[in-house]
Amino acid sequence: MSWDKEVDILVVGSGAGGLLSALVAAENGADALVVEKEPLWGGTSATSGGGIWIPASDQAREAGFDDNPDDAFKYVRALSADNVPDANIRSFVDNAAEMLRWMGEHTPLTYCAFPYPDYHAENPGGSPTGFRTHMPLPLDGKPLGKDVETLRFASPAASLFGYLNWHFDETYVLLFRQKGWLPHLVKSLARYWFDLPFRLKSRKDRRLTLGNALVGGLRLAMNEKQIPVWLESPLTELVEEDGKVTGAVVEQNGKPVRIRARKGVILAAGGFDKNQSMRDENAPLYPNARYSGGIAGNTGDSIRAGQRVGAETMNLQSAWAAPVFYVPGEDRGRLCTIERALPGCILVNQSGERYLNEAASYHIVGQQMAHREAEHCDASPTWFVFDHRYRHKYPVGPLMPLVPDWAQNGMVKTILKKGSTLVELAEQIGVEPAKLETTVARFNEGAEKGVDPDFNRGDAAYDKMYGDPSVTPNPSLAPITKGPFYAMPIYPGDIGTNGGLLTDDRARVLGQGGNVIPGLYAVGNNAASAMGESYPGAGVTLGPALTFGYLATRDALGIN
Ligand SMILES: Cc1cc2nc3c(=O)[nH]c(=O)nc-3n(C[C@H](O)[C@H](O)[C@H](O)COP(=O)(O)OP(=O)(O)OC[C@H]3O[C@@H](n4cnc5c(N)ncnc54)[C@H](O)[C@@H]3O)c2cc1C
């Protein structure tokens, strides 16, 4: 084999797990290269909340939370799929805190433990008080220089007006219009608009928050180490010699470039979020690529490349399920996290019936919607129903409070349904009016007392997390009473697939009979998740992606 380029570690994909893998290589004296298919780097990771689920971290201990890996293991083990080996879960819970410590020491990132309850906090080993989810502090993106221009934009759900990056804490200030929210907003807008002359060049906010902060911080550290990221360079094939993966072929300007990887190839190229035929074949419960919140480049290329060199796969039927809004013309669904838990709204199927606890985690609601649709064909879309009071108090996906209906974006107007009465609204959304009235009346009866006898909304620790603290006795429940009434369609979607290549506890890819394929690693959504089909808490996709990236590189370099 003749090679065009040689490195120690070749990383495929520039999401969080990929960038950290490359950084670990360089920090240990190895020569690393990241190849990225898209013209923008950062992957879905850049568009994410940047939250990472890390049990028993130093930060949690400092915050007074006495956590330990054994409790986390018990908690994840019970939720994860049976076919996920104990060793993979064990490896994650035992190494996550060390990875986070390493990341803090080798990058400008600061992660803080948050009081964010686990999604199944009531289960054995679960944490109702949180402190396993960690969020990054905002970061100045200016030192990234030109690289900030090719950093993927934050998700519209994680930025204001589609451009202003927003830190997690600030969400509450704005959402509940807490004291000082307006000066805070004005100051933030001024900071953005006075970022001259960058403002003339790009819409990008150089104050990096959430997922932008995560990948931005990793890239800043990589730039210090001069690790190249080749954009528009998709992996097309892995190169195997004598049963070992020794490199890969990427395409640049239509031409193949052969790259030798002396120590290993780390696949970090995401799931098959946007590959419709792979979904049709493997994940019929999550049939629609359009509703995935994953980015367009994630088409399972490196899962298939792995299979071609004999890799096994696991749990390809699974996804990080989530309810999503879909604005016509956009290339992905917008994750619906907070809105469902706020008081004064419900979700109803096409018969006008509630069928779930709206305030549960997005994964649980996404899975319930997907199952409902598969079994009854009446949940895609489901209708997000709210009243005038809710409309002007809280945001609903792309719909902004305080902004009048006529001033909303044209595409948003096409999906927003409105009626001066519930009967009129029901007619707009094709639901039997009497049924919708009955559903709302029953919901209101309980909501007035702060109870939900049908689905226990607002009882679990997680439900209250996104409730409105000014609403009592239940921050997630208020009656829907004041017209005009509104509805928006919401779909069973996902924020990425999470089945993939079968790996062991050091992220080594396994072939037939569970044999290690030497030289090949997979992390993030490229690999079958240690979480199986579950979503134990906020950050369980990125936490393991980073942890297994850390372990993969160390294994490839022979570091224990
Ligand atoms: C709105 C939103 C919020 C979220 N918030 C969180 C959160 O707070 N915490 C959390 O844990 N998870 C969150 N997630 C999920 C999380 O973002 C993803 O699960 C995670 O980013 C996946 O990481 P990855 O490295 O596997 O893939 P990605 O970050 O998507 O990176 C994969 C990269 O590989 C590239 N690629 C694909 N094919 C090739 C190829 N052939 N050659 C080279 N490169 C290729 C892609 O272009 C992409 O850049 C969120 C998702 C969304 C949509």
Question: What can you tell me about this protein's structure?
Answer:
The structure is a single chain. With about 550 residues, this protein is of the alpha+beta class. It is about 30% helix and about 20% strand. It is built from 18 helices and 23 strands. The strands form 6 sheets. Strands 1, 2, 10, 11, 12, 13, 22 and 23 form an 8-stranded mixed beta sheet that branches. Strands 15, 16, 17, 18, 19 and 20 form a 6-stranded antiparallel beta sheet that branches. Strands 3-5-4 form a 3-stranded antiparallel beta sheet. Strand 1, helix 1 (about 15-25) and strand 2 form a beta-alpha-beta unit. Helix 1 (about 15-25) runs parallel beside helix 9. The longest helix is centred in the first third of the chain and has 21 residues, at about 85-105. The chain is globular. The mean pLDDT is about 95. Bound molecules: flavin-adenine dinucleotide.
